[in-house]
Hints:
Blueprint (H helix, E strand, L loop, with lengths): L2 H11 L4 E5 L3 E2 L39 H4 L2 H9 L2 E4 L6 E6 L2 H10 L4 E4 L4 E6 L5 E5 L2 E4 L5 E2 L9 E2 L2 H4 L32 H16 L5 H16 L7 H13 L4 H14 L3
Helix pairs in contact: 6-7, 6-8, 7-9
Amino acid sequence: MSEHLRTALRLATDGLLPLPLRRGKLPFGNCPSCAHNACGGRPNMKSLGPCFCPRPCHGWAAATTDPHVLASPAWATAWRQAAAVAYHPGGAGLTVVDLDDPAAVQWARETLPTTRTVTTTRGEHWIYQGTMPSSNGVRPGVDIKSLAAYARWLGTGTGTMSPLPDSVRALAVKEPAPARRAPQSLTVPLRGHGGECPHRTPTYLDRGVSMGVQRITEARSAVHATVYRTFLAVLSTHGRCGCLTDAHVARLFTAAQAKGETARHCTDAWTNARTALGM
Length: 279
């Protein structure tokens, strides 16, 4: 029995779903019965369930805790040729924040809640309890590996695992692409659409804008997503009656730019929020 198979069986006992990796940290290819996607390719993708083929033929979907499958003759060649062991975090109810360089690690230490940490070749894996969609390149040097993904097994790590925080979930939030190229300066104020303004007093609007500014200013992570969501919230509440002025919008843009956002991004995010609301 190879050392990698022994590791896989131990992980399966602990509730993790292992799979072998070949050189280059890649899963093994399709088995003969699934060559050229004869089985439809990742048949359990919708349910994020395991692959039931007799060999590790669908990457993360082949991961399993069944020791009889792991140690079966059909998997023997893969384990003999394996260069490493991986596991499917989402299948075990986990999310791995893959920090690929020292700058990303420093960002996480300043931004994210502490949790179990595993040292990697170039950085660290921060492991949280909970699942979310996987996404690569959510920020420089940072990937999210959870559902429908695999992470290399590099040991148990140190520290106590924490629940998956909203700050990590927000990293994978993507705003709609702009329908057209937006100008870089503030040229998108809202004007009246006719009809009476529904706000009872100007204080109601000022409070809403102030809350938006505060939300952006206090963002410790996922500033890009926070700005878009704040614009969306302000527009959905105050944007349809024409009461927002250039001054109100400028306050929101100024707060966003103080957090490092560009004028171009502010304008694009504002335009995207209006489009999403059908305005």
